[in-house]
Design brief:
Number of helices: 17
Structural class: mainly alpha
Number of strands: 3
Order of helices and strands: HHHEHHHEHEHHHHHHHHHH
Strand content: under 5%
Strand order of the largest sheet: 1-3-2
Mean pLDDT: 82
Helix content: 55-70%
């Protein structure tokens, strides 16, 4: 038998975000109990759904059950706030309710509604993109020791700016993180005159071609082909974002850039010994 005390320490904000998105996608937010409160999502019902869906036992006593649900409020409130910062949700009612006085302050503090942007965001249920800092910081943290602090810093900044809807900045940071991978490889390769010259060219001009040739030029062709395929959109979106011309970087492009950075990092890590030999 699982109770809320067992779950509290293990429940992550990312899991709460995923559950909220799942609930919205499934249409469960449209049930009358929420609408009677004037919200799309009301915290007590949301947490209760989570417990029911995950086999968490709740007391039959309303007063005791309310206290049990409150144990999980902090993680869900943080998740709701992340979705609010994303512009998908907002605190308060869907509209001004006819009997405003019937909605007490405690109820108001627990209610969230979809924004106009949020409704559009969910129109295509096959294209739900959401990245949280905590989730991807752990993922990219796996590469920190191999690729160094420069990579980790820029990958986190790519995620942070994506999460705050700054997609142009996110693509610039993703591109910088991919450059840090090549520099990490260069630092481990046996120094030759050609490699030293390539590093000097990069330091003076920012051009990576020579470093790329020196670091990956002798690896298996399959690795080179996969590297080129994964880095293509990273470079394309980074160049579009970093140059002075007007450009529009969409959420899906920033998401693809971060996703390809993860795949690129995994490719290099899995073939590290082959690459630096």
């Amino acid at each position: 038998m699982v109770n809320v005390h067992d779950v509290k320490e293990k429940l992550s904000i990312d899991e709460c975000v995923d559950f909220i998105i799942e609930m919205i996608q499934s249409g469960v937010i449209n049930i009358s109990t929420n609408r009677n409160c004037g919200f799309d999502l009301w915290l007590p019902y949301l947490v209760k759904w989570y417990c029911n869906n995950n086999g968490i036992t709740l007391s039959q006593s309303p007063a005791t059950q309310y206290r049990e649900l409150k144990f999980l409020y902090p993680q869900f409130l943080d998740a709701l706030w992340l979705l609010t910062n994303k512009g998908i949700l907002r605190p308060n009612e869907t509209s001004i309710v006819s009997s405003y006085q019937s909605v007490n302050s405690n109820t108001l503090n627990h209610g969230y509604s979809l924004t106009s942007m949020g409704k559009k965001w969910f129109e295509n249920k096959d294209d739900i993109l959401f990245i949280t800092t905590s989730k991807f910081s752990k993922i990219f943290g796996e590469f920190k020791e191999l690729f160094g602090n420069a990579f980790y810093q820029r990958s986190l900044e790519a995620i942070n700016t994506y999460e705050q809807n700054f997609y142009t900045a996110s693509c610039v940071m993703t591109g910088s993180a991919s450059e840090a991978i090549l520099l990490a490889i260069a630092s481990k390769k046996t120094k030759t005159e050609k490699l030293n010259r390539a590093i000097e060219i990069y330091s003076n001009t920012g051009k990576l071609k020579e470093i790329r040739d020196c670091t990956l030029g002798r690896t298996d062709k399959n690795i080179q082909d996969m590297y080129e395929a994964l880095s293509f959109y990273i470079k394309k979106f980074r160049d579009n974002a970093a140059h002075g011309e007007e450009t529009i970087i969409s959420e899906s492009e920033a998401y693809l850039s971060i996703l390809n950075l993860y795949k690129l990092s995994s490719l290099i890590k899995d073939n590290w010994d082959n690459i630096i030999r």
